[in-house]
Amino acid sequence: MTMAPAAPPVLDVLALDVHCHILPGCDEGSRSAAESMLMGRELASLGVRRVHATPHQFRFGHERTAVDVETRVSETRRDFERHGISLELVASAEYLYGERLFEAVDAGEALITWTTPDADIRRVLIELPLRDPVVGVESLGRRLLRAGVRPVMAHPERVLSVIADSARTALWRAAGWEFQLDLLSLSGTYGRDARATAEQLLEAGFYDFVGSDLHRSVQLPDLVRAHERLRREGLPTRASLPANNSDPSRLARRPR
Ligand SMILES: [Fe+2]
Questions:
Q1: Range of the domain at 126
Q2: Is 152 a domain residue?
Q3: Cα 158 to averaged position of ligand 1 atoms, centre (Å)
Q4: Ligand 1 center to residue 21 CA distance, Å?
């Protein structure tokens, strides 16, 4: 009897999109139910099976309850079903790192978290300010872990302080953070520096999750290119490395 070959890990990783502004009218992402369906249809055709709807939280004045996000997810889920789009939609959020988040964590407010089907670990997606210097990242990581939630950093490759010194992500990992690659960083959407940093972190096997961070349907051709590239070149992630551990020594300060 011949055994079916195991699916390449890259396909499994790409099947889960943990960062997407696919809910209509929630933030500066999708503007209509029709646009959300266009995005959903394309994601499904790329092999994505599960997508997390991650409206902005604590940014641009957005602040939504878990119930509100879940209600909007249910509506879009119904649209997908009605139009034969085979894509599991999960309620999540993208929190902005900053004072309001610290306050929420200090006050024990319930954050919108998610789990993966294979593990019962609650995670929360957090974006750092892209340009401002940040302090207290390790401390927030430890506090969240103590509260039973694992922090996942959205697109570190787009953060200026990481572009200048990607080795600092190793310190953040030691404090409990995990990392999500923006697929559009690989197609150059966010500039050469973000792309080079993404490639460096990828090569070091530093990413735990990938996300499209798709906002508008106009970005779909770039997303298709990023998927094609990863299928062609492979996608080293922590999970696919032999020791299930990335190598911080391969991360370095970029020459200026
Ligand atoms: Fe985002």
A1: 10-241
A2: yes
A3: 11
A4: 6
pLDDT-derived band of residue 3, with 50, 70 and 90 as boundaries?
Answer: very low
Reported confidence tier of residue 116, pLDDT bands at 50, 70, 90: confident
Give the number of domains in the chain: 1
Asked if residue 146 belongs to a domain, the reply is yes
Instruction: Report CA(1)–ligand 1 centroid distance (Å).
Output: 46
Task: Tell me what the mean pLDDT of segment 163-183 comes to.
Answer: 92
Closest CA to 158 of 211, 107, 112, 113: 211
User: 180 alpha carbon to ligand 1 midpoint, in Å?
Assistant: 11
How does DSSP classify residue 222?
H
Model confidence pLDDT, tens digit, residues 206-220: 899 999 999 999 999
The answer to the question of residue 228 being in a domain is: yes
Greater confidence (42 vs 254) lies with 42
- Here the CATH number for the domain that contains residue 163 is 3.20.20.140
- 252 C-alpha vs ligand 1 centroid, how far in Å? 26
- Cα(3) to ligand 1 centroid in Å equals 40
Q: Residue 43: which H helix or E strand, with range?
A: helix 33-45
Which residues are within 8 A (CB) of 140 and not within 5 positions of it... i.e. 6 or more apart? 97, 101, 102, 105, 151
Each residue of 91-112: pLDDT tens digit?
Answer: 999 999 999 999 999 999 999 9
**Do 93 and 86 meet the contact criterion of CB atoms below 8 Å apart?**
no
pTM: 0.89
Instruction: Please report which residue ranges of 15-124 form alpha helices under DSSP H.
Output: 33-45, 66-82, 99-106
Residue 186 lies in a domain: yes
